[in-house]
Structures are given as structure tokens and as C-alpha cells.
Amino acid sequence: MSTPxxxxxxxxxxxxxxxxxRIYEVGARDGLQNEKxxxxxxxxxxxxxxxxxxxxxxxxxxxxxxxxxxxxxxxxEQLFPLVSDLGRSSGVHLPVLVPNERGLDRALALGxxxxxxxxxxxxxxxxxxxxxxxxxxLAMFEPVVSRAxxxxxxxxxxxxMCFGDPWEGPVPIHQVVRVCKALMDxxxxxxxxxxxxxxxxxxxxxxxxxxxxxxxxxxxxxxVHFHDTYGQxxxxxxxxxxxxxxxxxxxxxGLGGCPYAKSATGNLAxxxxxxxxxxxxxxxxxxxxxxxxxxxxMAERLGRPSPSRTVKALSHKE
Length: 318
Description:
Structural class: alpha/beta
Strand order of the largest sheet: 2-1-9-8-7-6-5-4-3
Distance between the termini: 10 Å
Largest sheet: 9 strands, parallel
């Protein structure tokens, strides 16, 4: 008998936590972009549909980065039309990653209404990932955000290396705040604070959030994106929730890493996050059994088991 059938996890709310959390599912994009073997477009589309069927309402579908840089997502033009009806029929948001105006053009041509940029808090990662300085990348993003807002398209920006950088080490908080403020000032609706190599700890998370608030960036505009390299992703998520954050990025089955940060291991697994949130009595709208079945299905297609502890526990057969 599985633990949910036994009434587990037992619901024991903790004080001063949000009643509901929006899970920003990144498995279909961030989770798959590192896969060396090409995942068929039809499998990706089915993955997105199964994720939506589990109750997830924000599912990052693909990336309009040049295929040379992320070959796995070279089929964006073919994939997006296969899932775009979810936005019309089910109210599912399907954000897509765009690196520049060309990427925005491609996304808008297919009817995308939610786009995401990827910025960096450090010069080293900006050079490795964007081949630009931090300020040059911000200048590149400005017309993208401006055009998105003029077209009433929701604009998010990821900020990588908010807590540590594999080349530079600790990242000063004021440096992260500067980039975040610049992105908000140019019109971004939402920012995702990325712990790209998984080195954050709870005090660091709460201090960064407090500094952002002091500089005029509201908690309501912030999401968090933790990697589990050192086993800290759930702990850091709880610290963010205690501060009032209600948007958490996660990847079904714990898929993903970062192709430009070699020490980055998988994202926070969506199932592990949902298990914790259910135990805290926080609503997500996600059916954990369906989500687990989806990750098992995807793991079979990738030819390896899911790294998610919750997926392993709930799919274990005696």
C-alpha cells in the first residue's frame, strides 16, 4: 500500500506560511535541455500534456534559443503548436525561454503569451552563457521586455548565480540586487532567483529576499529556483516560503541541470516539493499520484530512474 493511501503525509501546518504555492514547472525545458539523446517531439508534447493533467498550471514548454546552443530544444517551432491548445482550453500557462529579440519573434509568431529571459548576476556566467558582460546582456534584454509588454505578454527573467558562482565563488548580495532592480525597472513582471550550483543556505536566502524588498523589489514579484547539489533545495524553499514567496520553480522527476555550470546537478524535484507542501497543508492543485506516474513514464523514455526521492518511494514495488 502506498503512503498516500495510508493518509500520509500527515497534514500539520506551520505558522506564517502561504496558503497556496504556484509551482512553476520547468521539467519540459530546463529538465530536458541537458539530455544528450534527442527526445522525440511527440514525447515532449505528451510530457507537457501529462504534467498539465496532474494539475500543474504553469509549465515551461520549450526554448527559442538558437539550436546550435541547445540542440535538444531545436524543435521549438514543431513542439509549441502541439501543446498550445492547453492555454486556450485548460488555462495552462506555457512560458517559453527567449534569449533575444529574434527568439521573441519566433515565440510571438506561434502565439506565446508568456516569455522568460535568462540573466546572470556574475560576469563569468554572463560570459559563458550569453557571451556578454552583465551590462551588455541587460542592454540586450531591454527591447525584448519592452516589446513583450507592448504586446501584453508576461515577461519573466531568471537570474542565475544568485548565491554562488563556480568561477567567482561567493556572489555579493548587492551585486544580485543590482541586476534584479535593473530587470524590474525595465518592466519584467516576475524574477526567478537561481541557485544555479546549489550552494545556497537558508540564512542567505532570507537575507537576499530582505535586501531585495528594501530596494523596492516586492516579494510578490519573486520566485525561487533551487538546485539540490548539496541537498539544500527543500530547506531553502521553506526559508523562502517563510519570507512570503509563493512561486517555486521545480522539475518533474528532478530532471535537469545547467549546461554552462558543470557543478550544477538536478533541479528540485516537483514531487519532493509537493510532498512537503502537502504535509504543511499548503495547496498546490497538484495530484501527486498522477505527477509521480508522469515522471516514471518520462524516466522510462529516458532509460534511467528518476532521481526524485518521492518518485522512488511512491513507485516502489515490493
